[in-house]
């Protein structure tokens, strides 16, 4: 690739990204079809996207990836989509209760038909589709849906897993291998408590993982004997084989690597990039140094490098950030915190992006109707998983100090921290009928709640970036938000700090909330101005342009 001919369209079509943590790549981590040698990689040269249309356990009428968007992918030279699915989405059971082992096999044919139709629509556009179970019977890397058993410990769960893959294989029996492949399980790991997001995670014993994957492969091969079956790396993809390390080094199809981890996988990419003379980029999620709540920075520092793992030491996991050609950070304070370490080397502030399309009236009505007792009353909303860093307790206490007349408070988000979630529910119970803790909602309804709310509350104690603020603004919702680093960075960039609360004291939040509710002109101004802030700076197109520009600069730096 020569600098003088480099442009973004050419770059997007020709550059490939590492599979070690970035979603805009088509190379899976490992395959049951074993690599015979580093030079004879059996995986095609896929490049594409991870589409999350069906990875929620709950069916919804949220907007799907459209046919035009599929055509856009092909127009830009992409040829691959990975389609993670949550099995509860397409089974029939009483959703007011935890699913039972018997109900796991009750297939909802109509929902399966919808998924199959989308797969075939993508294939008709020339895209290879790799279907994946993001949530399988008895396993998901994320909590938020109560599983009836553990995939690695229950024979019944394993047989259900094989049953589901057999069903999908039969659905696509007539589809050529060039159009469909099967990615067995997203980020397999042994989790101490399958229903606790923060439970201890480790590798699945090799003999168990092999047996579970082998059973699923055999179920697929019964209908599709020649199709590719992919098994993700063990321990959430963090256990890398020497063959994979060597393949990344000698496979010259990638122009640049991009990783989202500084642990062993980051070390693998660093090792391969340095030995093959190619640049690599790393995105620092966090906060890693700035804006962390007390004790959190040390926690991130401890997780940032896997110094206890000999393999991590071998591949230089401790040098992932210092040696990177390009480091992405998500807020100005993080950039400032890393500038001295980077010593003039490429450090790029690139925010996340959000969809700018607004929620439909139907979605807004559905969101409101999903809260018992809310009716047509105006409400405030806190959106996010219950977590001390998200500050739901601050919002509830502030509301209870002086409940705005006629208003309700709605808290929506999947419960991943059970003790904190219980504490929030206990707080809410002292204001019955006014504070509603409703648990997880679909992305479509999450945006609809923001659109319908009078004010969104974002009382975070720490935020690397703060997507919920941008999503509120995109929906035209006024947002009262804390001065956590990511949130403040957004406000400073937009000159939009009128509703910033530089305190986490419930009394201060209560006072600011009362003042905002009593100022309709301020709220109307925010509703009018907020969507434009997002469109100007934080649309996905804007973010993609900045990332592509940074990639180009990194490549030119290596070529000069």
Quick overview:
This protein is α/β, with parallel strands linked by helices. It is built from 21 helices and 18 strands.
Would you write up a description of this structure?
This protein is α/β, with parallel strands linked by helices. The chain folds into three domains: 1-15 and 240-353 and 540-560, no CATH class; 30-239, Glycosidases (TIM Barrel), CATH 3.20.20.80; 361-538, 3-Layer(aba) Sandwich (Rossmann fold), CATH 3.40.50.2000. 41% of the residues lie in helices and 12% in strands. The chain contains 21 helices and 18 strands. Strands 1, 2, 3, 4, 5 and 8 form a six-stranded mixed β-sheet that branches. A six-stranded parallel β-sheet has the order 15-14-13-16-17-18, with helices on both faces. β2 (80-86), α3 (109-124) and β3 (128-136) form a beta-alpha-beta unit. α4 packs parallel to α5 (206-221), α7 runs parallel beside α8 and α13 crosses α16 (443-452). It is globular. The two termini are 12 Å apart. The model is unreliable at 1-39 and 293-308 (pLDDT under 50).
């Amino acid at each position: 690739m020569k600098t003088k001919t480099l442009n973004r369209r050419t770059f997007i079509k020709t550059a490939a990204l590492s599979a070690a943590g970035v979603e805009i790549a088509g190379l899976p981590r490992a395959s049951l079809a074993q690599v015979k040698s580093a030079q004879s990689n059996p995986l095609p040269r896929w490049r594409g996207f991870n589409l999350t249309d069906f990875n929620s356990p709950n069916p919804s009428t949220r907007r799907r990836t459209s046919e035009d968007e599929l055509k856009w992918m092909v127009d830009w030279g992409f040829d691959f989509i990975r389609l993670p699915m949550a099995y509860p989405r397409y089974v029939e059971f009483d959703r007011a209760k935890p699913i039972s082992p018997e109900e796991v096999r009750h297939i909802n044919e109509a929902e399966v038909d919808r998924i199959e139709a989308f797969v075939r629509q993508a294939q008709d556009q020339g895209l290879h589709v790799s279907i994946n179970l993001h949530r399988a019977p008895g396993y998901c890397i994320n909590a938020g849906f109560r599983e009836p058993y553990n995939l690695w410990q229950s024979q019944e769960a394993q047989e259900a897993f094989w049953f589901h893959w057999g069903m999908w294989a039969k659905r696509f029996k007539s589809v050529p291998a060039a159009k469909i492949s099967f990615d067995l399980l997203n980020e397999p790991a042994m989790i101490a408590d399958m229903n606790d997001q923060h439970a201890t995670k480790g590798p699945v014993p090799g003999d168990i993982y092999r047996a579970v994957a082998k059973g699923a492969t055999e179920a697929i091969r019964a209908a599709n004997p020649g199709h590719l079956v992919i098994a993700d790396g063990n321990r959430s993809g963090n256990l890398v084989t020497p063959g994979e390390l060597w393949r990344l080094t000698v496979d010259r199809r990638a122009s640049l690597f991009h990783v989202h981890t500084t642990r062993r996988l980051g070390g693998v990419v660093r090792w391969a990039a340095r030995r093959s003379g190619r640049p690599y980029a790393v995105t620092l999620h966090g906060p890693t140094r700035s804006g962390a709540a007390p004790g959190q920075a040390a926690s991130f520092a401890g997780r940032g490098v896997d110094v206890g793992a000999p393999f991590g030491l071998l591949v230089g996991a401790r040098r992932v950030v210092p040696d990177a050609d390009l480091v992405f950070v998500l807020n100005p304070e993080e950039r400032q915190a890393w500038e001295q370490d980077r010593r003039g080397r490429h450090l790029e502030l690139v925010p996340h992006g959000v969809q700018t399309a607004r929620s439909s009236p139907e979605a807004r009505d559905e969101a409101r109707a999903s809260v018992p007792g809310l009716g047509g009353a105006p409400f405030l909303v806190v959106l996010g998983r219950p977590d001390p860093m998200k500050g739901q307790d601050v919002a509830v206490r502030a509301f209870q100090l002086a409940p705005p007349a006629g208003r309700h408070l709605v808290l929506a988000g999947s419960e991943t921290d059970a003790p904190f979630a219980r504490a929030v529910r206990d707080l809410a119970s002292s204001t019955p009928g006014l504070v509603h803790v409703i648990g997880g909602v679909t992305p479509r309804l999450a945006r609809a709640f923001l659109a319908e709310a009078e004010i969104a509350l974002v009382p975070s104690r720490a935020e690397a970036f703060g997507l919920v603020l941008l999503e509120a603004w995109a929906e035209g919702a006024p947002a009262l938000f804390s001065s956590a680093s990511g949130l403040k960075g957004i406000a400073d960039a937009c000159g939009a700090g009128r509703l910033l609360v530089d305190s986490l004291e419930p009394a201060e939040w209560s006072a600011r909330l009362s003042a905002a509710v009593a100022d309709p002109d301020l709220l109307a101004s925010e509703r009018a101005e907020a969507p434009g802030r997002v469109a100007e700076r934080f649309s996905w197109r804007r973010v993609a342009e900045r990332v592509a520009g940074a990639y180009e600069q990194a490549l030119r730096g290596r070529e000069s």
